[in-house]
Every structure is written in C-alpha cells, then in structure tokens.
Specification:
By secondary structure, the protein is α/β, with parallel strands linked by helices. Helices cover 48% and strands 17% of the residues. It has nine helices and eight strands. The structure holds cytidine-5'-monophosphate. It comes from Aquimarina brevivitae.
Length: 227
Amino acid sequence: TNTIIIAIDGYSSTGKSTVAKQLAKELGYVYVDTGAMYRAVTLYAMENDFVSVSDFNKEALIAALPEIEVRFEVNPMTGLGEIILNGTNREQEIRGLNVARHVSTIAAVPEVRKKLVELQQKMGERKGIVMDGRDIGTVVFPEAELKLFMTATAKDRAERRYKELIERGEEVTYEDVLKNVVNRDHLDSTRKDSPLRQADDAIVIDNSNLTLKEQFDKILAIAQDHL
Ligand code: C5P
C-alpha cells in the first residue's frame, strides 16, 4: 500500500477532527489540526491587544508574525499533538469561545495564512498524514491522494460545539454557539484568500444522520480504497 496525504475540509464543528484523529490512529498516520494553528495566532493577537470586539490592528499583527512560533508537541498520555505557542502549551486556552469569536478575522489575513500554510506543507513532506482544516484540499495539498469534505446542518454542528464547550466548563448559551458557528462559516467561505470551498475532486460526507461509528466505518472504507 501507498503512504498518502488525507485532506479533510469542511464547515466548523462537522466532526472533522474526531474522524481525522480516528483515521490517523487506525492508519498509523500523523494527525494535524490546522485550526489549532490559526487559533494560536489568534490567542497571541488577543493577548497583545491587536484584536478586540471593536477593532483589529492588522498591521501590528503582521509586524509581529516573525515573533510567533507555533508548533505541536505530542502528549504522551493521549498520543495527540498539542499546540505550543512561543514555548508554552496553550491547548486548553485556544478552544474557548472567545478565541473562536476572533479566529476567522485573523485567518483572513494573507500573511498569517502564508506563514501557517508553509509550516503545514513541511509537516506533510513525508506524507502519512491526516490534516483537517478549511483549505487543505484546495491550497495546502492540492495533490492530496484523498480529499474529504464534511458537512452537517448548522443545528447539528452548533449542538456538537455547545456540548463540547459545556463539558469544558465554559458558560455559554446554545444561541451564542450557533451564532458563532454560522458567523465563522460565513467569514471563512467569503474571505478573498483561500476561502472554504469543496475541492472539485473531494468526496462529500454529510454526517447529519450518521452515528460516529457509521461515519468512521464509511470513511475508513473510502480511505482503504485510496491506499
Ligand atoms: O477547525 P477550527 O474550527 O478549530 O478552526 C478555527 C478557524 O480557523 C476557522 O473557523 C477558520 O477561520 C480558521 N481556519 C482556516 N484554515 C484552516 C483551518 C482553520 O482558515 N485550514
């Protein structure tokens, strides 16, 4: 069998990362969550007051980009990569709704994308990787051997995110989460640089009505066909 690149794109909270993690484990591949990288840059921008609810100092962020170091480190307990921002593990902080509120603004900046896409391409140099995001099949790895595009209704997606945030102890309302999911999808699909769109050769997976097990079995069968 071949060692390949598997690109998984789609709207927010469609379960991309759940599937990607399972698939990587099953195939013995590396899993890379590119959303975590955009979230880390966003956390940096928030902590340095480059972005707030009312304004965004894009020039200051661009000027600071060389100072931002983003990488993953495997947690030996889980076997999963966790995000390291300038030497500190920030895996917990990047998952909050506050970061989610600003991330699509930060991710629309071409200079930010250029920096992160280069890192992502390096991570995939030796293949054997499952990468999830918004532009993996279209921009990061247009030559990926397998591209999946995941969708689900906004309601299903908001419910998934809401549960995750509540389990993490965040005090959020379902309405806030739904608003965030819809807003991010809109910003991500309408930005000029690398908008979220389905690659022409992607296989579409609508998981609105699939259990996790059904979804995984379906995707594993597709993946095995491409090895
Ligand atoms: O995947 P996740 O929901 O964590 O991604 C957070 C945000 O990061 C997305 O809403 C999008 O704005 C941005 N993103 C992106 N390109 C990627 C991955 C994420 O623009 N490849």
